[in-house]
Amino acid sequence: MSTEILELYPNPGRQHALQGLYLDQMPPDDGARDPFIYSNYISSLDGRIALPAAGRQTGQVPPEIGNDRDWRLFQELAAQADLLITSGRYFRQTEVQEEQAELPVGSAPEFADLREWRIQRGMSPQPDIAIFSASLDIPIPAIRRQADRNVYIITGANADDSRLTRLVSGSHARAIHCGSGDHVDASLLRPRLAELGCRNVYAIAGPAVLHTLIAGDALDRLYLTTAHCVLGGTAFNTFVRGPQLKPARRMPLRAMYLDPLAPEGTGQTMAVYGC
To answer: Residue by residue, what is the 3-state secondary structure of the chain?
Structure first.
């Protein structure tokens, strides 16, 4: 890994190694704070995080912006998590082999240091998993494949009881109601996660889940990598999707870095927003 990461803010001009850049960034555990919830995306300059892909039912991160250096930082954020928030869509994708990657922390040799980092701190080998779902359209075999982790299905109180019972009885997942409707009400999420003993919670789901978190004031920090290229296209995903947020949620800049080495020939900036 190159050491050519240039800090732009708050201490412009400092050089950093890529490896370890995002480790130890979570607030200290004072024994009293609420779970700290954070998320991470990579985007083009024109806001594309996913585009349609031939032969796939769902979009994917465009190869023009996806890169191993950003993926390393994604894994570092996962290494610090007690719990990953994902969606039923990811589990459906696994059934048709369309998931973009295994749920982190990755098993590849280049992430062995992150797996060891967790062990040294007395953490479980892998973060637990929370699946946000209103439809409860989640393949049971996909849940069973996560047998080494606790899995929680988080849904609204009006979700289909028969579907929820089938999922729980057919797997090791545990059901958690959060909200009075069909969908998760993220304004009630923190105490539910605190009951599970979570301190650091990493949301790795798509733009609808991120909107749910932001609308419920349940997102503390956003890590956003911007690849310095323009993709265009009329069918795309950006990192948040849902009704207009009123009032707009303000997320002040906490830090920004420049990586000149990837994507090749253009570079990328890594910004950290929120608290």
So the answer is: CCCCEEEEECCCCCEECCCCCCCCCCCCCCCCCCCEEEEEEEEECCCCCEECCCCCCCCECCCCCCCHHHHHHHHHHHHCCCEEEEEHHHHHHHHCCCCCCCCCCCCCHHHHHHHHHHHHCCCCCCCEEEEECCCCCCCHHHHHCCCCCCEEEEECCCCCHHHHHHHHHCCCCEEEECCCCCCCCHHHHHHHHHHCCCCEEEECCCHHHHHHHHHCCCCCEEEEEEECCCCCCCCCECCCCCCCCCCCCCCCEEEEEEECCCCCCCCEEEEEEEC
